[in-house]
Amino acid sequence: MSQNSGIGMQTYFYSGAGNSLQTEEIKKYWNEDYYINAVSYTSLGWFVSMSKGCGFTDQSYRKTSDWPDEWIHEKAKSGYLITTLHYSGSNWMVVASKGSNYTKQEIGSAPWDGMKDWIKKWWNEDYYITDIAVKDGLWTVVMSKTNLYSNQSYLWASSQSELEEKVKKKWDEGYRITALQCSGNNNWLCVMSIYVNSPSRGQTYRYGTSGITDFIKKSWDENYRITYIGG
Fold this sequence. Notes:
three-stranded antiparallel beta sheet; globular
């Protein structure tokens, strides 16, 4: 959850473990001009955050067992770019939006060792990692041309305490969490970026499921908004 993100009103909901994505809930909030700004599959099932003020003007999503390559390309032709994605263990959930801060995108998929040089290549072209997902040891990385960030790095952690220690160090250097996923066995990949327009944006996060409702409410009261959900 982040401060000074530009996000206004916000809601969230989750399906419960083993239950279907709440498609009617998404439609309801679309009709009230909310847009999906974060989604993940967790021990609480599909967990969706929808917000006003994130700049999107239209949105679509595809939930499917196979990577929706053709759908992504067709949407891109109409000006929709990927703004969030996740793999649940059986289904991809890919959200594409109009009106994002992204102008172009590149998508790569490989074991992490095979992604390092690919990421560096696009970093050198002024692209930034804007989302990550993992399926059976294969990492899917979305990199976008955007003016949101001025610098970016990533870190690995093999425990919650190691993650907290490394994140705090990067926070002190001005970086903020922009993507975070666990590949299993507490092996965390965390992408951290420096924002151009909000270098002082505050950030907090909660690990696990206990007390999440109270954590979100308290953070909302302190003008934090959900900006990413990892699973």
